[in-house]
Amino acid sequence: MKLDQIPVRQVKGVSAQKEGELHAFGVHTVADLLDYFPFRYEDYRLRDLTEVKDGEKVTVQGHIRSLPAVARFGRGKARMSCKVEIDHFLVTAVWFNRAFLQDQLVLGREITLTGKWDANRHQLTVSESEFPDRGKSRSGSLQPVYSVGGSLTQPFMRKAIGQALIQFGDLIEDSLPPQLISKHRLIPRQEAVMRIHHPEGAAEGQGARRRLVYEELFWFQLKLQAYRSLLRTRSDGMAFPIDSAVIRDFAARLPFELTDSQKKVVNEITQDMRQKHGMNRLLQGDVGSGKTVVAAIALYAAAKAGHQGALMVPTEILAEQHLRSLQRLFDGTGVEVGLLTGSVTARKRRDILAGLQMGMIDIAIGTHALIQDDVIFRSLGLVVTDEQHRFGVNQRSVLRRKGLSPDVLTMTATPIPRTLAITAFGDMDVSTLRERPKGRKPIKTHWTKPSAMDRVFEFIQREADQGRQAYVICPLIEESEKLDVQNAIDMHATIAMSLPKLKVGLLHGRMTTAEKDEAMRAFGANETQVLVATTVVEVGVDVPNATLIVIIDAERFGLSQLHQLRGRVGRGEHQSHCILVADPKSETGRERMKVMTETDDGFEVARKDLELRGPGDFFGTKQSGVPEFKLADMVADFETLEEAREDAAELTSEPDFWTASAYADLRQRLLKDPLFQGEQID
Ligand code: ADP
Ligand code: MG
User: Fold this and answer.
1) Ranges for the Helicase C-terminal domain (predicted)?
2) Does residue 511's CB lie within 6 angstroms of at least one atom of ligand 1?
């Protein structure tokens, strides 16, 4: 019998009702229960009171030296205290609302106390107490602490898992390849699982954790690498016959020369597109590094090779902007571009759908709906997604079900350290734009208190006097879009009043698409000099004449978001500025402002952000496609992640990985993963 085939109900003490609650926690089988690892330990190891700091939680053992005194107050509330001798010290032990223990506090009896130590009053506020003469005891151990809720209490989880180990511990198998176990000197899985739940000491817990973290990261890596190797053996991708001369000619028509970074990345992408296997590539580059033109070249190459492309973006504003810039870039080349968003009229939409189906339109730009719905391409060869979370496995399979297997290029402006990206997105190839176009001056960032708004307004006026433009960003208050919008409207009125010579535009989420377009267009054409906006402008908007961005209540934004916003300026030849208006209450808030004023390198900002927020928040799990690990931490366990990646790569590159019987178990396990659903192997 395999553990993952035994329902959790088989564990003694797990009732039908508890089983239901366990299901809600994702625990269905005994295997799931045993893999329900503690996220920390409660330390009940006995300590010497002289080493304990004031306010610390501690477990100690001693003898009762006075009869308990009970003081009752309020409704059934009681404070009970007695003297306990611990290592020749006399300590006052205090219980709240535990008067029922009174009879058990007998003079001379040995007692174990866990609680908070008050060094000044020589007093211990007891949270748990035990009597060693009663036999079994927690004291002296590290007790696992599980994530619990509902009627699943900590004691229940501890008992259920303890019981599962007793009943089924013998069935725990080692599924890692033996050569890896010996290479990394890992302890056997059975031992690791036992110890992670019941470590005798910290060192033991560490050994168990090391084994299980490695295992978790190895499976993750093996899955990605195997998927990638599978795609590479496939020849179901589009092999674009791309002529280098076509690309050179196109590049020569651009109003600027490509940066070395852009050239390198264009090469990587077109090389990939020429191959028969499907491309799955991540293009990361700082805001303003020129990702759009790279995407345009790839789309152009696809069109010239006789296929179609789609550019997916998160917002309509961005879709319209891309439409304009691609139309400009493709002007006179014969490459046709069509826009598909929610606000395209029914008639126009019909035309575009027909154009895509017949192949008269080469490139479709739009939001996510673009690749789903009733949209039919004559020959979709390349999908580019911009500034969005990555193009998930699900969407890929939606396409495959439509009989399509386009190359995929995902662009992101939240760069993560390259090594981390390669490791985290093991199923993708990574291209990075490191440099910004020549002649760009670094954006100067200033941090000022809200009381200095008058000077901020003067700054805006000065920029406008020189013909430049400014954004003023009001924060998004999650709980209330209405408040947000009101903020923006108020700010708009204030600025219009303070700077009567300027035309001030307004852009927020409650406006209709037509109104938003008009506001963006007017700002783009310098008909308005100031644009007061909520974060709708965060991603991708490109108005090179804007040289100032003022961010109100900047402490409400995360680092990466601030950096994105700042990237709206510094897009032309003029010196640009970013003013953060903030009076942060928290230490991390101040830290964020400091980071922003010290660097405008997106990679550096991302590194700091990762450090300040931790990987869970930073990657936002589901959105980014990075899984939540049970035990592992992508940043803290980075070295292990890297080792696991190398091991998995080595294994999957063995020529007989998909056939050797030695790997049958590994493959079996892989095929159960949703990533491989619908894939044919062998
Ligand atoms: P992002 O990477 O943030 O999407 P964009 O693609 O919007 O950046 O490019 C920012 C600006 O830089 C645009 O105005 C674009 O036309 C311009 N640009 C892109 N590449 C170059 C280059 N090699 N030289 C000069 N300007 C460039
Ligand atoms: Mg962009």
Assistant:
1) 452-611
2) no
Q: Is 188 in the pocket of ligand 1 (CB under 6 A)?
A: no
The three-point CA angle 600-606-607 to 5° equals 105
Q: How confident is the model at residue 619 (pLDDT cuts 50, 70, 90)?
A: low
Percent of the chain clearing pLDDT 70 (strictly above): 89
Using the mean position of ligand 2's atoms as its centre, give its distance from the Cα of residue 96 in Å: 60
Asked if 45-140 and 244-274+290-412 have one fold, the answer is: no
Output the CA 287–ligand 1 centroid distance in Å: 9
Q: What is the pLDDT of residues 221-278, one digit of tens each?
A: 898 888 877 777 766 677 889 889 999 999 999 999 999 999 999 999 999 999 888 8
CATH topology of domain 45-140: OB fold (Dihydrolipoamide Acetyltransferase, E2P) (2.40.50)
Residue 512: partners with Cβ closer than 8 Å, 6 or more residues away: none
Q: What is residue 589's three-state secondary structure? A: helix
661 CA distance to ligand 1 middle (Å): 52
Nearest partner of 460 among 548, 390, 374, 397, judged by Cα: 548
CATH number at 444-599: 3.40.50.300
pLDDT of residue 148 exceeding 80: yes
For residue 489, how far is the Cα from the chain centroid? 32
CB 230 within 8 A of CB 679: yes
Shortest-distance atom of ligand 1 to CA 293? 6
User: How is the chain split into domains, by residue range?
Assistant: 45-140, 244-274+290-412, 444-599
Identify which of 250, 560, 571 to mutate to test ligand 1's pocket (most ligand atoms within 8 A of the CB): 571
The predicted pLDDT at position 372 comes to 66
Q: Which of 133-137, 210-214, 491-495, 521-525 has the lowest mean pLDDT?
A: 133-137
Decide: 308 in ligand 1 pocket, CB within 6 A: no
Helix (H) or strand (E) run with residue 629 in it? none
Shortest-distance atom of ligand 1 to CA 387? 4
